[in-house]
Design goal:
The structure is a homodimer of 152-residue chains. Chain A contains six helices and five strands, in the order H-H-H-H-E-E-E-E-H-E-H. With 152 residues, chain A is an alpha+beta fold. In chain A, the strands form two sheets. Chain A has a three-stranded mixed sheet with strand order 4-3-5. Chain A has a two-stranded antiparallel sheet with strand order 1-2. The interface between A and B is medium-sized, with 34 and 34 residues. The first copy, chain A, binds a DNA duplex (30 and 30 nucleotides) through helix 4.
Chain lengths: 152, 152
DNA sequence: GCTTCACTGCAATAGTATAATGTTTCATAT
DNA sequence: ATATGAAACATTATACTATTGCAGTGAAGC
């Protein structure tokens, strides 16, 4: 998972879109955790960066982060976890993006899952109601294996 | 659907919990639309109420609305639509609460769907990863039947 | 009557996201 | 090299969503 950045750069090159420093840094920060990260956590980190770089005047503002996140989501490199208003790196940027998450209520970790049967069922359910599905959000909250065993 | 309030009062009585004026009013406002309602829309309505009632001093504040929403969600009378940070009345308050939504990107309407097969599949997927599922969020965004035909 | 506990009122603040506007950067074609 | 146009970025302000903490109130049970 550590070379997510390399993979991302390759993908962007293929697609002819630019991965700028701000976008790269946001992607990097999103990937540094295995749990969803809030936009303002990213913002704080980047503001700290700027200070360290001796550019106290150049303050990073929310739109910088949100624009980068929008771009990364468009490119399928990052997903938003709706139930937490937080963001997480996509673990298979090359493939389809019809996926779900298993989110641990204890440790906050989120595992991305992809399942053909689930995608099919969601489409079927939608069309059963005459509904044309475009995208879907599936988030399951509960206890991950390690937190479950600790709780026992 | 119009007697959702009556049903709610019955349910609360059975369970020995109180449905106070604030909670009743919030439930009423949530039910008045077929689309998800934001907490601050509810808040504005209730502030207008208070003014009309000639109680200009008694301002309704956010916690009043959020506390009522929390209560109503605990009782399964209202669901939160995570992808919109909005709330919607539950169409089968007596039954299970493992449900999903079909959300129209055009008109904003949201249809609640419940499906045993989907619930089962979600549980199966979770346990396949050693995950203990507690609750799930399923939201499908797309075009509802009437907006779909208009777009054609 | 008194206690207790859930509920509410109120003020402040935290956290998430976008609008509006102007400026910079960069690839490309001259 | 340089003009140009599109994409990206900076900046400020503001809108929207949600929570915390504490004080007061009122009804149910003793």
């Amino acid at each position: 998972m550590n070379d997510a950045l390399g993979a991302a750069e390759r993908l962007c090159a293929e697609r002819g879109v630019r991965i700028t420093p701000a976008r790269r840094r946001v992607l990097e920060l999103v990937w540094q955790r295995h749990a969803p990260v809030g936009a303002y956590d990213i913002l704080s980190e980047m503001q700290r960066d700027a200070e360290k770089d001796g550019k106290p005047g150049a303050k990073v503002a929310p739109p910088t982060v949100y624009r980068a996140l929008d771009f990364l989501m468009e490119q399928g490199l990052v997903h938003k976890v709706e139930s937490q208003n937080a963001y997480i790196g996509c673990s298979h940027p090359e493939g389809s993006h019809d996926c779900g998450f298993l989110i641990c209520r204890e440790c906050g970790s989120a595992l991305e899952i992809e399942d053909g049967e689930l995608s099919d069922l969601l489409k079927t359910l939608a069309s059963k109601h005459g509904f044309e599905a475009r995208s879907s959000t599936v988030e399951i909250e509960g206890l991950c294996p390690s937190c479950k065993s600790q709780a026992a």
